[in-house]
Amino acid sequence: MKITDVEALHLRIPGVQEIADGTQDVLIVRVYADNGLVGIGEVSSQPYVCKAIIEAPRSAERRHGLRQIIVGQDAENVEALWQRMYFHTNRYGRRGAAIHAMSGVDTALWDLRGKAVGQPVYQLWGGAGRANMRAYASYLFGDTPDETFRLAQEAKRLGLEAVKFGWGPFGKDAQVDRDHVEAARRAVGDNCELMVDAGCKWDVATALARAELLKPLGIGWLEEPLSQDDLRGYAELCPRSPIPIAAGEGEVTRYGFEDLIERGVHVLQPDVAICGGLSVCREVSRMCQTASRRAVPHCFSTGVNLAASLHWMAACGGDLVEYCLRPSPLMRQLVRNLPPLVDGHVSVPSGPGLGIELDEEVIDEYRAN
Ligand code: MG
């Protein structure tokens, strides 16, 4: 099975707003093979930049575009293709947008591989699989604790057994923060896993003080209390925090996650569409198992990312995925058979590859170029 083409499809809804919603503007990757099969992946980054990284022609050694690097190659060995892309982009890659773009290609290659052998990705990876995965949804904190309470009630009505709140007014004042989290806890009850995303706002001393303050409210994890680059800070904070510390939604490659694990981060959160793709996610799960840590996908884009995250979790013994509730048609309609959220759970697609199908009408309507 030879790769014949790689397509970077930029989809964009009209009037993209500067809000924390990755479902307004997305990059879908399709990898074509000479037997007629097509693999689908997604990149959750700057779509114009990552599209250029895929489409760029041959340059000097180790500065090529991704399509140039893999067209004509055998599609069988996905991990060898990952290494090939990594090596041949390393003058401008290794981290950042080049790895984001590779995420879409890598995930499409796994989809293709599954389709070629007629197996869902989780089975291809030897996972016993779970038909159903527990899901959590992410909400922005309300402007007031009352509003946070109402949002948390909505989450409870959806049957969610795990909910995350973050950003918004959170992080500026200890008492206000506690009031918001207390309101959320009151609304969801004691049996719901409640996580808090601090949005990289604090230094180590503030993070420790907040962790102590929020501990009585039963927080599942405290996410990104420090800058993503404050690795020394994480090394100081993690062993002392009374609440598990989560990080890694912006991290790339196994090397980045190895570093976070060594610094003591308890919950690792690779995003399939950012970190380097499914190949990296599988490796992170292996490292987490060895180091007794937890891997939970960050997933706030389309159903392509959701499906990939589900296969990864089902194959690697995971128990939770993030489910994006944004109303964008790119989240709700792009994948025709989007796995729905039912009673706080979502089913793992059972078809070959990722088990999803794109809606060509949605692609035609929102195609940016
Ligand atoms: Mg986050």
What does this structure look like?
This protein is α/β, with parallel strands linked by helices. The chain folds into two domains: 3-123, Enolase-like, domain 1 (2-Layer Sandwich), CATH 3.30.390.10; 132-353, Alpha-Beta Barrel (TIM Barrel). Helix content is 39%, strand content 17%. The chain has helices at 47-55, 66-70, 78-88, 97-117, 121-124, 145-157, 174-188, 204-214, 231-237, 253-262, 278-291, 303-315, 329-332, 360-366, and strands at residues 3-12, 25-33, 38-43, 132-140, 162-166, 193-197, 219-223, 245-247, 267-268, 294-295, 320-322, 341-342, 345-347. Strands 4, 5, 6, 7, 8, 9, 10, 11, 12 and 13 form a ten-stranded mixed β-sheet that branches. A three-stranded antiparallel β-sheet has the order 1-2-3. α1 packs across α4, α3 packs antiparallel against α4 and α10 runs parallel beside α11 (278-291). The model has no long low-confidence stretch (mean pLDDT 96). Bound molecules: magnesium ion. Residues 166, 197, 223-224, 249 line the site of magnesium ion.
Secondary structure layout plus pairing:
Layout: E1 3-12, E2 25-33, E3 38-43, H1 47-55, H2 66-70, H3 78-88, H4 97-117, H5 121-124, E4 132-140, H6 145-157, E5 162-166, H7 174-188, E6 193-197, H8 204-214, E7 219-223, H9 231-237, E8 245-247, H10 253-262, E9 267-268, H11 278-291, E10 294-295, H12 303-315, E11 320-322, H13 329-332, E12 341-342, E13 345-347, H14 360-366
Parallel strand pairs: 4-5, 4-11, 5-6, 6-7, 7-8, 8-9, 9-10
Antiparallel strand pairs: 1-2, 2-3, 4-13, 12-13
Helix pairs in contact: 1-4, 3-4, 6-7, 8-9, 10-11
